[in-house]
Amino acid sequence: MSNPMRSGEVTEVRLDPPAGGRDGTAVPASARRSRVHPYRQPFTWWLRSRGYLLYVVRELTAVPIALWFVLFLVELARLGQGSGGYHPFTSPVFVAASVVCLAAALWHSFTFLNLAGLIMRIPRGDRDLNPRVIVGAAFGGFLAISVVVAGLLIWAGA
Amino acid sequence: MTAHADDTAAGEARYAPRPGPNRLQGLLWVAFANAAVLIALIAPAHILVQGVLAPLGLVPSFDRRYATFAAGIGNPLVKIYLLVVIAASFYLAGHRVRYVVHELGVHGKLAVGTVCYGLAVLGVAVAAYLLLTLP
Amino acid sequence: MDKTITVSVMRFDPEQDQKPHLQPYEVPYGEDQVVLDALNWIKAHVDGSVTYRWSCRMGICGSCGMNVNGQPKLGCSAFLRDYAPGPIVVEPLANFPVIRDLVIDMDSFMEKLRWVKPWIIRQETALGPGEHRQTNAQIDRYRQFSMCINCMLCYSACPVVPIEPDFVGPAAIALARRYDLDSRDQAGSERLRTLTGSDAIWDCSFVGECSAVCPKGVDPAKAIQQTKFESTMGMLLPWGGR
After folding, report:
1. pTM given for the model
2. How many CB pairs under 8 A join B and C?
3. What ipTM was reported for this prediction?
């Protein structure tokens, strides 16, 4: 099959885009736009929308939860002082702090278990399992496990 | 793909991250996802009973005396369970704080990551020490 | 006296301006007018130098992405009545360098799209025994992620994009997942392995704003989290590898 490009009448053929023109047009790099204004993300970006703020709150719920367990470790450390020195937390300040940590833990549970339905794709034959079913199961599991754990804590000592 | 000169007029280099898989980040994420699920399921119950109901005296059967607590902690299964839960909560905080701090403007991903995960590991070490040596 | 509304447009002339500045215009107000109409009116009647991208004016080409009162929107889908009595501040999409006025440099976006290899990859190269067949159920698996119009609103909403050059971004990952889930595609684990390289997807912390601003309901946040989940399943379960 004869190649028309090699017929001899065409002396110069450009098969590749010329240097500098990535889209194929013959524009050298130096002739393109002179200056772009760079973008700098402001430090207050997270205040610009409700979604951003909720995100930061959601992420920071991990901190009170961890701090509560630090308090638990403090209580645990008191065991080292023997039966005379050990005393559990009783002050209203501790209760108030626990309420805050509980709110953080509940918000974490609510947001994360909702996301579980989004993330997990469980194929059932042709279709996937409805994400609402997955989320419902997650919340159901949460309630059941909470009851079990609370029950064990409350009555295990008896 | 035809070869041509890099266009740097806008200061953009070709997008070319390192070839994957990035096992470290994948592992860090899996650990986070599992820790988050565990904490989501059991943390509220613990905090409610131990932090609110018990100090308020609302669950008298939850014995807060030394002997009962020490006996509970003495059980190796309890030790392991508590270590896992505490490790999960510290890791969850470390992982999430690392991302938030970085996104709020603190540059130096390696430094931020080392500090955040390092603190979490430190906390777990302390918890392990306490749980294994007490009562 | 016809009703008007103030539309302040961010102007930047790279040859004259040191930095961008807002320029207010009084634009005739209409209940059915959108921001793109306002820009076209400004260009036709007041200031022909106003520069912006647009094409279909009906929300399908993805050209007219811009920040309207701080929120990434399609100019053709942002009704003036939703911002009345105004003023409306129109700025270029966030997170991108600005070439001129509302036109941003989208080279990085194009690079990232290309990097995920957004095409069917199969063993054979010829059509062979005929067309590829797909059931509706097979199409439904990836249909949502195929709706992307490349408008870049998700990149503009993502707080990670401007601080992490290695992050490949929401639309690119959704596109990669679209091909991953396509029954005709055979690149499966190879595409996934490429995708989970470096910090291409791991910089995402699930802020979720990308999905919130997507005009087509693509839900790139879901695509990213599913990719994270499915790429790590293989690490944990020996039989979980794709």
Report:
1. 0.86
2. 78
3. 0.89
